[in-house]
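[job 4471] stage=fold_predict status=RUNNING
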Amino acid sequence: MKNLLQQHLIESRPGAILQTLLKRQLLPQALILTGPEGVGQAEAAEAFAMACNCFETARRAEPKSLTLLSTLWGCGQCRSCLKIQSDSHPDILRIKPIGQTLRIKQIRAMLDNVALKPYEARRRFVLIAEADRMTPVSYTHLTLPTNVQQCRS
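[job 4471] inference complete, writing structure tokens
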């Protein structure tokens, strides 16, 4: 299943865009992956986080360059990739709704966490599942200019 999804993602337009971002090291502060439920947004987000933090890819790549990345998946075997796959990586935060909504306390905790430097990864990622379930207060808090600036530093 993963190989089929991986091949589809690599050949798709969104996959090509993500690969271009990786190869050029143009990683934006945020990406929004949208589409019908079940088309692979969560898998694509995880793949992108793995590709950006894969130890094996970093070892093979030229210094300060990720030009050898040919797929969106990391190696799947290094410590970083395995931790991401098992949802135990300290720098990959996953936020899911509590009940029917994403609550303000979840957004506040996430903002506190992203203000810190990564613990062991090159880049920290926050994967927000079902962001459309964010309460208006949560959304406003997430997008306040002061909070956005805090995430950039």
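[job 4471] summary: Residues 41-53 form the longest helix (13 residues).
[job 4471] exit 0
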